[in-house]
Amino acid sequence: SQVKGAVHSNFAVPSWLSDANFKATVEVVISSDGKILRRNLVRPSGDSTFDGAALAAVDASNPFPPAPERLTRGWGSFTIQFNFPDNS
Q1: Is the peptide bond before 63 cis (omega within 30 degrees of 0)?
Q2: Distance separating alpha carbons of residues 30 and 58, to the nearest angstrom
Q3: How far is CA 71 from CA 11, 34, 85, in A?
Q4: CA distances (Å), 24 to each of 17, 44, 48, in order?
Q5: What pTM does this model have?
Q6: 70: which residues sit within 8 A by CB, 6+ positions away?
Q7: Residue 86 CB neighbour total at 10 angstroms
């Protein structure tokens, strides 16, 4: 929840997009020490500005707090998905 909160606090879209019904999903692979290894837009919104804001929110949150060992055991990394906007 800390990681999710950090990313979503960095998500900002221009006011002209705030009422739009765009949705995007970004998949992020994070190392055990919290650094982003890769990120990918797995479900684009169809609007490049919105998608760019989602990717920028992830990038601005790098590095994340170190991951608990139970998430990285055996792999040294873990994958998380972020939905924009956060509808959880």
Answers
A1: yes
A2: 11
A3: 25, 11, 25
A4: 13, 5, 10
A5: 0.86
A6: none
A7: 11
DSSP 8-state class, residue 62: P
Kindly state the tokens that stand for 77. Answer: 């990394």
Coil vs helix vs strand at 57: helix
The confidence score (pLDDT) of residue 71 equals 77
Interval 68-82 mean pLDDT: 81
Instruction: Give, rounded to a whole angstrom, the gap between the first and last alpha carbons of the chain.
Output: 11
**What letters, b where the CB count within 10 A reaches 16 and e where it falls short, cover 48-79?**
eebbebbbebbeebeebeebeeeebeeeebbe
Q: How far apart are CA 68 and CA 62, in angstroms?
A: 17
